[in-house]
Amino acid sequence: MRTETTLFKILSDSTRLRLAVMLAVQGETCVCDLAAALGEADFKVSRHLGIMRAAGMVETRREGTWMYYKLVEPRNVLEGCLQDCFRDCLKSHPLVKKDLQHFKKGSCGKSS
After folding, report:
1. What are the CA-CA distances from residue 57 to residues 37, 44, 49, 88 (Å)?
2. How far apart are CA 68 and CA 30, in angstroms?
3. Distance (Å, rounded) from C-alpha 32 to C-alpha 6?
4. Which stretches does DSSP call E strand in 1-112?
5. Rounded to whole angstroms, how far apart are CA atoms 36 and 107?
6. Which of 24, 72, 80, 108 is the most exposed place for a label (fewest CB within 10 A)?
7. Which residue has the higher pLDDT, 102 or 52?
8. Which long-range contacts does 79-82 make (Cβ < 8 Å, 24+ apart)?
9. Which residues lie below 8 Å from residue 30, measured CB to CB, with a gap of 6+?
10. Do the Cβ atoms of 18 and 99 come closer than 8 Å?
11. What is the distance between the alpha carbons of residues 31 and 49, in angstroms, rounded to a whole number?
């Protein structure tokens, strides 16, 4: 149960939960696009993503000066169910809807 407890501790922060939902809905995304969607500073979003990465929830890819994040492939049923819930259940949450409205992929200087 240690792994599951860690997962829920990470997701107990609202910013990290919002990031998980954004990554589940949008797929691989640059930090600056996530920061713009959440209305937060890049450094704050990077810090939260670093915590999620240390817990094994997200993986990264560097492209030039930009860091791209995505959720890891689910390693067990719980992770799969949570990612489905992020995509299907939480997508309709008012705050997530607002984040999605502010989301502009490619705002870091590269369009997708």
Report:
1. 20, 17, 9, 18
2. 4
3. 26
4. 29-30, 58-63, 66-71
5. 8
6. 80
7. 52
8. 79/7, 82/7, 82/11, 82/20
9. 66, 67, 68, 69, 105, 107, 108, 110
10. yes
11. 9
Instruction: Extract the tokens encoding 44.
Output: 């704050």
Segment 68-99, tens digit of pLDDT:
999 999 999 999 999 999 999 998 899 999 99
Whole-number Å distance between alpha carbons of 24 and 41: 21
Q: Mean per-residue pLDDT for 17-25?
A: 96
For 60, the token pair is 């990264």
pLDDT in tens, 26-58: 999 999 999 999 999 999 999 999 999 999 999
Q: Which two tokens stand for residue 107?
A: 């705002």
